[in-house]
Automatic annotation (TrEMBL), chain A:
Keywords, sorted A to Z: 4Fe-4S, Iron, Iron-sulfur, Metal-binding, Oxidoreductase
Pfam family name, one: CCG
Coiled coil spans: none
Domain Cysteine-rich: 32-102, 148-235
Organism: Winogradskyella haliclonae
Source organism superkingdom: Bacteria
The protein, known as: Fe-S oxidoreductase
Annotated InterPro entries: Cys_rich_dom (IPR004017), HdrC_iron-sulfur_subunit (IPR051460)
From TrEMBL, chain B:
Pfam families recorded: Fer4_9
Organism: Winogradskyella haliclonae
Boundaries of every 4Fe-4S ferredoxin-type domain copy: 295-327, 360-393
Official protein name in the record: Fe-S oxidoreductase
Keyword Nucleus: no
TM annotation in the entry: 6-24, 68-89, 109-131, 156-174, 208-226
Length: 262, 436
């Protein structure tokens, strides 16, 4: 992205004695993974365009511990959680937005029991909020007429019952939204959850992401939209496995909206 | 009057119900082998879930064909069983169709007419169910865990239902006074001619069908405990105790919280002697390697599972040929629990170590590590069973008690411990993306 992004940290806000409207939890994928960093930047562009007073923790952010918990390492999860909660509570954070449904679920549902109570929302919910409030506008011509199918992230959809926000946001692009046969409550996982992202799959006859990609291809889409950095990786790999990378792109909801700005 | 038949009836009834109660007590004892778990919250919401999911069958109709047929069998069984009340009264007091004495003929006729129609609908549904299991060969009934007893169990239940419905119709068809009344014999009037018009023969067939019907019901009642069919009772408590928090929320282990707090407390004395408490329990085991390490709801889940396989057919790992099957997780948990129960019975009320456990002897690591924690199985279950929570408990045991995670996951966790990310990047570089 050519224009310079404004990304203030909580420490800078603190130094000025101010509180941001919202904390942007970048997450490990969003900070380090090359593909996910593009999603992070697209979302920050939207925050900048909407003049949102936000901040990040920067080097003070650490892994939520979500993936350790799903792998069965409750110790590591709680260590991470308590360290993060100490930082978040010291900054008196009230509201958190994140592009990662796994961080979203973990911060929203699993931190409160350990003393970290915040209003946590997913970036697709926040983008919807900004559009509804008139703070963010979408041109609606970049993807006009294109076929977009949205792949529900398990930890946003089934796990937290949010199916509508990403779809409502996508409607602003004037694209044609097409649903896979398995969508919303019955959506098939991309194959990355439960720490699978970090290991080889067990022996089987197919990879989960390939199966999910095949389901997406049935809708003959131009674009597969995702709302999770891990789903994005899995679906991108699936498209490559099916040799469709020339005709179909995998983009996060934030990227689609950021590309459709004035 | 001859009281012999009344006495025989009472003995059979008491024996049938008594044996059932004895087994249900065992079942409750087995469930109580699990950890206690507080479920006193949200009573209203829990009753509502039970009414909606168990009574209202709301999740059955997600798959319309099986759902519709199931509702017929469910409604049929519940309503036709009102007839059992009459049979019991008749049997105990030597009356015949006592319903006619308390109800106007038209009302009684209407009721029996409904039962007869339902009996036919149940018969048709059960035949379709049998075809689905044995002829159409639906994939989810052919998995490896369905071989042998589970397949026979499913069929035996269907045969029971066919026999009971037929006996009910034959009983009505051969009842001369009932047929002469000509109210409510909407179905049985067409079967009646098949049995001729010799009144002695008819009476003999009627009595036989009547006795076999009630004995059949009592046998079926007692079959439940040994079968997957317990769901007809346990679906109700199971949906009441179902998970109410968001599906993505996994519980935080309290024993771990205490230790982590101690580790992070700068004022804690690392050399402090353990608090003196003679009643101190042995340190809690992290996670689960056997059924006693699970909680009571998880064990209730295991007994409630009716092996329909909707979970497995939605599981991404299973759909792509991995060994994991959430249904098998539930069946293994139940089978191990039954084995532990028998062990306790055989050893005078105390469990004697049999060198076996749920982990390894029933459920393999390969199955556990194939799970994506996507919750598709939990969503698919028509009676609120949570196979995922058992998988996670067993992963916890593998990781925290045995350090037996796959190597790549150990690397990932080491990275998180060392630099706060699953990859080997420096935490100080977390904000580098801004200027890249």
């Amino acid at each position: 992205m050519s224009e310079q992004l404004k990304v203030p940290t909580m420490a800078e806000y603190m130094a000025e004695g101010k509180q941001p409207e919202i904390l942007f939890w970048v997450g490990s994928a969003g900070s380090y993974d090359d593909r996910a960093k593009k999603i992070t930047k697209a979302f920050v562009k939207l925050l900048n365009n909407a003049n949102v007073d936000f901040a990040v923790l920067g080097a003070e952010e650490s892994n939520t511990g979500d993936v350790a918990k799903r792998a069965g390492n409750e110790f590591l999860f709680q260590m991470q959680a308590m360290m993060n909660i100490e930082v978040l509570n010291a900054y008196e954070v009230k509201r958190i937005v994140t592009c990662d449904p796994h961080s979203f679920n973990c911060l929203k549902n699993e931190y409160p029991g350990l003393g970290g109570v915040y209003d946590v929302i997913h970036h697709t919910q926040y983008i919807k909020e900004l559009i509804d409030a008139g703070r963010l506008s979408v041109k609606g011509d970049t993807y006009k007429g294109k076929r977009i199918t949205f792949h529900d992230p398990c930890y946003l959809g089934r796990a937290n019952n949010e199916f509508d926000a990403p779809r409502n946001v996508l409607q602003n692009t004037n694209a044609t939204l097409v649903e896979m046969k398995k969508h919303k409550r019955t959506a098939l996982c991309c194959g990355a959850g439960g720490a699978q992202m970090f290991k080889e799959p067990e022996k089987g006859d197919k990879d989960v992401n390939v199966l999910r990609t095949e389901q997406a291809l049935e809708t003959t889409p131009d674009i597969i939209a995702t709302g999770c950095p891990y789903c994005n990786t899995m679906m991108t790999d699936g498209i490559k496995a099916k040799e469709k990378e020339d005709s179909i792109t995998v983009l996060d909801v934030a990227e689609l909206i950021a590309n459709d700005q004035d | 009057m001859d009281y012999l038949s009344n006495i025989i009836f009472a003995v059979i009834l008491i024996a049938g119900v008594g044996y059932f109660v004895r087994n249900i007590k065992k079942l409750i004892r087995n469930i109580k082998l699990g950890h206690d778990i507080d479920t006193s919250d949200n009573k209203n919401q829990r009753w509502k879930s039970m009414a909606r999911i168990a009574l209202g069958q709301s999740k059955m109709v997600v798959r319309p064909v099986a759902g519709f047929l199931h509702i017929i069998v469910y409604v049929g069984f519940v309503i036709i069983n009102i007839e059992v009340l009459e049979i019991i009264i008749d049997g105990l007091f030597g009356t015949h169709r006592v319903g006619l004495k308390v109800l106007p003929e038209s009302v009684y006729g209407f009721l029996i007419g409904c039962f007869e129609v339902l009996a036919v609908l149940v018969l048709v549904s059960v035949i379709v169910f049998w075809l689905r299991r044995n002829v159409i060969n639906l994939k989810r009934f052919l998995s490896s865990e369905m071989k042998g007893w589970p397949k026979n169990d499913g069929n035996i239940i269907l045969y029971f239902e066919v026999v009971l419905m037929c006996l009910f119709l034959v009983m009505n068809a051969t009842d001369i006074t009932f047929q002469n009344m000509n109210a409510g014999n909407v179905v049985s009037q067409f079967i009646s001619p098949l049995f001729g018009d010799n009144s002695d023969t008819l009476h003999l067939i009627e009595r036989s069908a009547w006795w076999l019907h009630i004995i059949g019901i009592l046998i079926f009642l007692n079959y439940l405990y040994f079968s997957k069919h317990l769901h007809i009772l346990l679906a109700f408590p199971n949906t009441y105790y179902g998970k109410l928090t968001p599906k993505g929320q996994f519980n935080n282990l309290e024993a771990v919280t205490n230790e982590v707090k101690l580790m992070m407390d700068p004022n804690a004395d690392p050399f402090a002697a353990p608090a003196e408490d003679d009643n101190a329990e042995e340190p809690a085991k992290f996670g689960a390697s056997d059924v006693m390490d699970l909680n009571r709801i998880q064990l209730l889940n295991a007994y409630t599972c009716t092996e329909c396989g909707r979970c497995t057919s939605e599981c991404p790992a299973n759909q792509t040929g991995k060994k994991l099957s959430p249904r098998k997780i539930m069946m293994d948990t139940r089978d191990r629990l039954a084995e532990v129960g028998k062990n306790i019975d055989a050893n005078g009320g105390a469990f004697k170590d049999d060198g076996k456990q749920l982990l390894g002897d029933y459920i393999t690591k390969e199955e556990l590590w194939a799970c994506t924690t996507c919750n598709a199985c939990v969503e698919a279950c028509p009676v609120s069973i949570d196979p995922l929570s058992i998988i996670i408990e067993m992963r916890r045991y593998l990781v925290m008690e045995e350090s037996a995670a796959p190597m790549e996951l150990n690397n990932m966790m080491t990275n998180i411990e060392n630099n706060g990310a699953p990859w080997p990047y420096n935490q100080q570089d977390r904000l580098n993306w801004v200027n890249e």
